[in-house]
Model the fold of this input.
Amino acid sequence: MKKDYTQLKEEFGKHLKKVRQGKKLPLRTVAINCDLDDSQISKIENGVWDVQLSTIFELAKGLGVEPKELLDFKI
Done:
């Protein structure tokens, strides 16, 4: 189960980065919009940070997307 959870974090991070880059938003801009630290977002995108539900909602707000778009990825 641990391996699957690690894969889930990695795939979420890749998807988050893809959405951000698709909107042509620098990491710093998203961080400011979300009131999060850019290093925290970087760690999420790299699959090393355990993201909370509230953070997903903040990221969605900062990216200008619905939270469900961030959760629509395959593992």
Remarks:
- Helices lie at 2-22, 27-34, 38-45, 53-63, 67-70.
- The domain at 2-70 is CATH 1.10.260.40 (434 Repressor (Amino-terminal Domain)).
